[in-house]
Amino acid sequence: TTYSLLILPGDGIGPEVMAEVRKVIGWFEQNRGLSFDVSEDLVGGAAYDAHGVPLADATMAKAQQVDAVLLGAVGGPKYDNLDFSVKPERGLLRLRKEMDLFANLRPAQCFDALADFSSLKREVVAGLDILIVRELTSGVYFGEPRGIHDDGNNPENEGGRVGINTQRYTSGEIRRVARAAFELARKRGNRVCSMEKANVMESGILWREEVQWVHDNEYPDVELSHMYADNGAMQLVRNPRQFDVIVTDNLFGDLLSDAAAMLTGSLGMLPSASLGAPMANGRPKAMYEPVHGSAPDIAGQGKANPIACILSFAMALRYSYDLGAEADLLEKAVEKVLAEGVRTADLMGPQGGTPVSTAEMGDHVVKALSAL
Ligand code: NAI
Ligand code: MG
Q1: What SUPFAM superfamilies would the database entry show (predicted)?
Q2: Binding site as annotated, residues for NAD(+)
Q3: Which domain holds residue 77?
Q4: Tell me: the pLDDT tens digits for 133-159?
């Protein structure tokens, strides 16, 4: 088997962290006999500079054909004043939309060596390993009607300007993301907690009923619980280890996954995946990317932590190539490097020390792969 991968390094630190993933791919080819068909293309500001658009049609077409897309980051001050239609993040949005990537996976995993970086106490987060599945293509960020209207009334009294967004979900949209969550749970701790606000929202009632329906009819073996999302936010910081997989809508998922991120420490450590419908080979359409942005404040200085991007590639190994053992190995290598005290600048504690560069961190991970 040859595993196809489209690499879109993007802007800022994107190309820097992607170079370290290349080393990891090379290691798996040389030492595990795996064969990757890697192509590389432009996205974001880099694509705008070359083509006048943040994602060329040819790149979009390529993304539709590969087993997986791995994206670095897009954006930067140079592009901040561009017209909305060609802003770097539009490249990202186009990929998500046209590949119909409806399930956004945000793992929150606490490596023991970094437990003291968590916003919470070590004893609350040590060993934490949860996965938030956020619905990504619908809900209040997309629902119609939307807009700002002026109803002509006195803004100090009964009217004036009105801002409108609509939370709208269909059964099908809820069922497909619920299925993704149940499938993932079967490969982990076999538990799903669904979060909504069925107490005050009709879309929340529908969400709860449809998730329950998918469970009862298709995944009765997986343990399912329901929780109001506000309580979920509380539970995430009170006792996050009670969860395995959390499935929730676009808006709540946006907030809950950012809160969960801070349970684990640095932004430079966080991977993500966005999955769509199964392709002909049975594996989902998929794009993987670190949670962080292009970090213009440190770009070009060799300071970026490549681990978020490396762990995003580990997710690709697991979910797009069905190489679970290799994904485990790569995660263990990262854990080993951290346990040895190797740190990029973002992982330096108050006690200080000498940080390693982006390239050195990549070298350490590759060395750890060989040592395991
Ligand atoms: P950011 O994530 O780029 O940076 C926030 C802070 O975290 C900065 O101090 C940065 O140096 C640090 N940081 C981020 N990644 C790091 C890494 N791997 N290693 C070490 N330190 C790291 O977010 P910010 O500053 O809000 O946005 C910068 C640019 O990135 C903007 O143009 C924004 O639009 C874009 N952006 C792109 C995203 C994407 O491509 N998915 C996501 C978020 C922001
Ligand atoms: Mg967010």
Answers
A1: Isocitrate/Isopropylmalate dehydrogenase-like
A2: 76-89, 293-305
A3: 1-110+265-372
A4: 999 999 999 999 999 988 888 888 777
